[in-house]
Write a structure and sequence with these properties.
The chain is mainly beta and about 270 residues long. The protein has four domains: about 100 residues, Immunoglobulin-like, CATH 2.60.40; about 30 residues, no CATH class; about 35 residues, no CATH class; about 90 residues. About 10% of the residues lie in helices and about 35% in strands.
Length: about 270
């Protein structure tokens, strides 16, 4: 049920409000038949403008409501047109025909899923679709909505049956849990800084030392810079050249040095 508010001001040719003007509303296709109206936006039974004695007030204003096709009694289909007349002793009688009361786009009723008009295309979306949306967002989903499965961060498969794949979420969490600190440079490059102690290095077969560093850049051959930490602020930041740097995969590099040192490793990729 919906009632459309109809109102106007009646004024003379100089814009002065006309009081106590008799207002009558008829059906355009039956000019002598008064239309059903309501004097309240939600309450009361239908009446007519003559029975309700609709007149303008001191500001020339009048109002009433017209019921739509969902009104229990006294409503009209949206294609119904109306005729308005006004009269009073001492003024010229006036009339306007073919008045469209109902809007071209109607309000959606998201609670309606049973009426015969749920699919009518006279709204931005139909009542049927609005009902489905409204009930869907209120649903409690305890299984697999739309066949989407929950992410399992312990797995690394890339099956596209989730909003985020296990592989991507595992990758993100592994990167967060790594020893480096992640920052994004203004250039768009990614930079990570790692701190290695002398005991972190492993001895290789040729007597040098190596460390397998997981950077999680998702690409091979990043830029690597190794700085020796001397324990003295004046001597820190002493840059050395690694004996060898090798990419083991797109997320891991092996750094080899001649001596197991306390070092700062910066990786840019």
């Amino acid at each position: 049920m919906a009632r459309i508010h109809y109102w106007q001001y009646i004024v003379d040719d100089q814009g002065r409000p006309l009081q106590d003007v008799n207002i009558r509303m008829y059906l355009s296709n039956s000019p002598t038949q008064e239309a059903d109206i309501f004097t309240h936006q939600a309450l009361g039974a239908p009446t007519t403008t003559s029975v309700a004695d609709i007149q303008t007030d001191g500001n020339g204003f009048f109002e009433f409501w017209i019921g739509d096709e969902f009104e229990n009694i006294g409503g009209y289909v949206s294609t119904q047109k109306f005729k308005l007349t006004w009269s009073r002793a001492g003024i010229q009688i006036g009339a306007i025909s073919n008045i469209d009361i109902f809007p071209p786009v109607f309000k959606v009723d998201e609670t309606d899923n049973v009426s015969s008009t749920v699919t009518e295309k006279n709204k931005t979306i139909s009542n049927e679709l609005a009902y489905k949306w409204d009930t869907h967002v209120d649903s409690n989903i305890d299984s697999e909505p739309h066949s989407f499965q929950a992410v399992d961060i312990l797995k690394s498969d890339a099956i596209p049956n989730k909003l985020v794949s296990n592989y991507l979420m595992n990758y993100i969490l592994s990167a967060i849990a790594s020893a480096g600190t992640l920052s994004i440079e203004a250039t768009g490059a990614i930079q990570k800084a790692f701190t290695l102690a002398g005991g972190d290095w492993s001895v290789s077969g040729d007597g040098s030392y190596y460390y397998d560093l997981a950077h999680f850049f998702g690409r091979q051959y990043p830029v690597v810079q190794v700085t020796k930490r001397m324990g003295n602020p004046k001597l820190d930041n002493y840059r050395i050249e690694p004996k060898n740097v090798r990419s083991l995969d797109e997320n891991t590099i092996r750094i080899s040095v001649s001596t197991a040192i306390d070092a700062e490793v910066t990786i840019i990729g």
